[in-house]
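agent> Task received from the user: take the single chain below, predict its 3D structure, and emit structure tokens. No templates, no multimer pairing.
agent> Plan: (1) validate residues, (2) run structure prediction, (3) serialize to tokens, (4) report one or two observations.
agent> Step 1 OK, no nonstandard residues flagged.
tool_call: predict_structure(input=
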Amino acid sequence: MIHPFRCTRALALIAALAALPRCGGDPAGGGEGSGGAATTKAALPASVALAAEPAGAKGVGEAIEALAAPGPVVMRGRVGVEGSDAAYFSLVDLSQKGCIEMGDECPTPWDYCCTPADVMAKQSATVEFRVDGKLAAGSVLGVHGIDHLKEVVVTGEARKDAGGNVIVVASGIWVKP
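)
tool_result: status=success, residues=177
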């Protein structure tokens, strides 16, 4: 016979686990970076797509650590979460593993939800694509070969915002074939 107290505890634990956000989930209900289909692609200039891999690329973590003041950067990493309606994505250091590589059956491993936020802050940057000084509209997925978890090298101007987040305004991107 199953003891009623044990059964109640088990049900409470199952309910608590079910309420936790899943990997790739957005507790606020938004769709950004959720892997859903974007309605429009960003119209980026052809000049943004680099024909050859730029020399001197640093890993994202190394480039962030070396960034003392705003200036030019050449960063290597993987495409993470993208904007579904704006031309940006997170660039994640190659040393970081997506959830699937960690053994989790995550449907959105490019959000690196299995990696602690403090680690991601030191190992990722936001890459923005601007046209005439304004953030371009539309998703970057599918533009010039950009896709989740693809290895890329980005050239551009980097700066840290007031919160210590690194933003790179991209002038070029090379996508590893």
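agent> Step 4: summary for the user.
Helices lie at 4-19, 60-66, 117-123.
agent> Done.
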